[in-house]
User: Fold this.
Amino acid sequence: MTSPGKKRNSEILKNANLRQTHPRLAVLDALMEADIPITRQQIAEHLSDSAPDKVTIYRVLECLIKKGIVHKAFMKERTAFFEMAHNCSKTQCHPHFTCTSCRKTVCIKNAKMPLAEINEQGFAIKHQKVELEGLCPECNS
Amino acid sequence: MTSPGKKRNSEILKNANLRQTHPRLAVLDALMEADIPITRQQIAEHLSDSAPDKVTIYRVLECLIKKGIVHKAFMKERTAFFEMAHNCSKTQCHPHFTCTSCRKTVCIKNAKMPLAEINEQGFAIKHQKVELEGLCPECNS
DNA sequence: TTTCACTTGCAACTCAGTTGCAAAAAGCGT
DNA sequence: ACGCTTTTTGCAACTGAGTTGCAAGTGAAA
Assistant:
C-alpha cells in the first residue's frame, strides 16, 4: 500500500483545499489504479477490507467531482462510472466506446472530436461528452 | 383523441410487424406530441386516465426501441428519456443540450457532428451519441 | 368464431443512490 | 500535546426507477 501514487493523491487533495482523509485518499487510489471508468461498487471491491461505507464513497466522489478532479464518465445499466479527470480537456472528455456484443467499455483517448456548433444563438457550450457504440476488435473478428 | 398522427402511428406498427394495441398506440402518440425526449412518467401523465400500467409502458418502449422506432436519448438524474427516432440518422442521434443552470434539456437538431475516428484497429462504430452541457440562451443573458 | 401466441396488469421485488443524525476525526490556535 | 470548531464519516432507514413472475386479457390468422 505504499504505491508511488500515494503522495500524488495527497498532493491532489492539498491543491484542492480538501482535508486529508482515509476515504478520500482511498477513492483516489482506486480510481488512479483502475485507469478506466469504474463504479462505486468496483471502488469498494478494489479497497476490499479497508473500503469506506458506500455513502461515504458517494459523498467523496461528489466532492471530487465538484473540484473537477473526477468525472462521472457515463451511465451503464443505471449505474454511474467514474474516472479521474486528468485525461480530459476542459471542454471535452475523451469518448467512451461500449461494445454491443460483450458490453465492455473502453476509453478512446486519442480520438479527435471537434466541439459541436449550434446554429441557434445564445448557447454557451461548456462541456461535450461523446459516447460510441459498436463492435470492439475482439467481437468484430 | 383523433389527432392526425393516429393513423401514422398505426402505420408505424404495421410496418414494424407489431400488433395494434392500445398501449403501443398511446405511447407512440405521447412521444410524437412531445417532440422532445420524455420519461416514462411524462408519457403516463400525457395519457392521464388512459395511461397503461408503468410496466407496460416500459415493455412497449423496449419493443419499439428494438425495432428502431424509438431511442433512449439520455439519462438525467437516473431517469431515462425517450424520443422518436425519426430525427436521427442511422449512426448518430442529434446532440442534446442540457443547461447546467435551469437543468432543461433541448434537442439540437441542426448541429453537424462528424463521426469520431478511432486510431486503433478493429473498432466498428455503429452509433454515436453526443451530449452537451452549458448555458442555454435564457440563462446566458 | 375459435384458437393460440403475444400482451397486459398487478403485486412484489431489486438495487443504485439519497437523507438524517449522532459519533469520529481533521486541522487550527493555544 | 490539548482542547475546540468544523467538516467528514458510518449506520440505518428510505426513495424511486426499472424489473420479474404469473395469471388474465386480446389481436389477428385460419
In short: Strands of chain B lie at 70-76, 79-84, 96-99, 105-107, 124-135. Residues 19, 21-24, 52-56, 59-60, 63, 78 of chain B lie near DNA strand C (CB under 10 Å from a C1'). Chain B is about 30% helix and 25% strand. The interface with chain A takes residues 75, 78, 95, 97, 100, 108, 110-114, 116-138, 140-141 of chain B (CB under 8 Å).
